[in-house]
Description:
Layout: E1 2-6, H1 16-26, E2 30-36, E3 56-59, E4 62-67, H2 77-97, E5 107-112, H3 119-129, E6 133-137, H4 143-148, H5 154-168, E7 173-176, H6 181-186, E8 195-197, H7 204-210, E9 227-232, H8 241-254, E10 258-263, H9 269-278, E11 285-287, H10 296-301, E12 305-309, H11 314-317, H12 323-329, E13 334-337, H13 340-349, E14 352-355, H14 360-372, H15 375-392, H16 395-415
Parallel strand pairs: 1-2, 1-5, 2-4, 5-6, 6-7, 7-8, 9-10, 9-12, 10-11, 12-13, 13-14
Antiparallel strand pairs: 3-4
Helix pairs in contact: 2-3, 8-14, 12-15
Amino acid sequence: MNILIVSQYFWPENFRINDLVQGLGERGHNVTVLTGQPNYPSGQFFPGYGWNGPKEEHLSGARILRVPLIPRGKGGNLHLILNYLSFVVTASWGVFFRMGRHEHFDAIFVFQTSPVTVGFPAALAKWRYKAPILFWVLDLWPESLSATGAIRSPLILGLVKRGVRWIYSRCSRVLVQSRAFETNVAALGVPLDKIMYFPNWMEAEYEAACHSKKPGNKNKPDRASEFRIVFAGNIGAAQDFPAILDAAEIVAKESPHVQWIIAGDGRMAPWVKSEVKRRNLSKHFSFLGQLPSSAMPEIFSTADALLVTLRSAPIFSLTIPGKVQSYLSAGKPLLAMLDGEGARVITESGGGTTCNAGDSNTLAQNIAKLAGLSPEQRHAMGHKGRAYARQEFGRNNLFNRLESWITEVIEECRSKG
């Protein structure tokens, strides 16, 4: 099949769409990716990228067409709005002028984390190439805009909602990363038989670790007395670092051997670093910065527990953070401070402890409990999580599912002429 993928984000930015493109290529499909110049999460163009390109690259057998955009910067909502809108304009231009008139695509797959506006150039591509759209929703709009406080105007939120409804109406399938998303998507006019549950999967490097016999490196000769908590991913408002730091203060008083390893970057990273200093927690925190996903299995192997958090908000209670699947496959206990679907998955797996979003006191208590377990007990907990991840989030099974849906929509499109 010839598949066009539309995504504002792509390699060398760390998103699961990278692994999906690789997986589709491994299965013999011809993949073209329409994307922007990489600038997430630092807000600045990656070295070697910028306004002048590169315009075309090849990765894992896929052709990557890049269009210019205004980088996110670090200046707040205005920069983000310009970043989002610029990709809509340049990607729409790219549909007509970066891809040939006589190109053929069997289907269009849209990777929709924020922003949902990535759907507009995809809709143009559908019109031009007469190809069906499968739209993968990882972030609900306008709900997430309201929850993060990015937009508070009821008028603007209403306009965004109308835009989302327009995008969904042009999709043959709407894929949702959480079953809890189904109600919200259906409320915008998508028939239930066109809404498909498609969760995040274990990426290739994690799945390889999942099938190994050991859950990770248990030999830590230089850190034998430490209890290491690893947080990986975006450092933003949604991750509720104020509550994490509150828990860290509590833990530091009772268990000074606990170390917090932060592997990631984001808009709130400078604030978090300054707040760690202000709270006299510097000796308990290490900031590794943004690392490639290929480095994560080794980082996870040195951890005693893996931390996942989300702020308290209705939209976040519907979400399963993508890192949950990666954490579970690492075979290490999870420490979760979040509500809803994410907490349900972790509890159901038996692979970690959970507490309500924003509950710093209980998070600190859970850290003390995990630190008090023997290595064998933590190993058993991690093993349960790994087994659950293999069953529920196996890469091969989920890619098979996606292939079948793509085939279905292509056949439907052809039958309609």
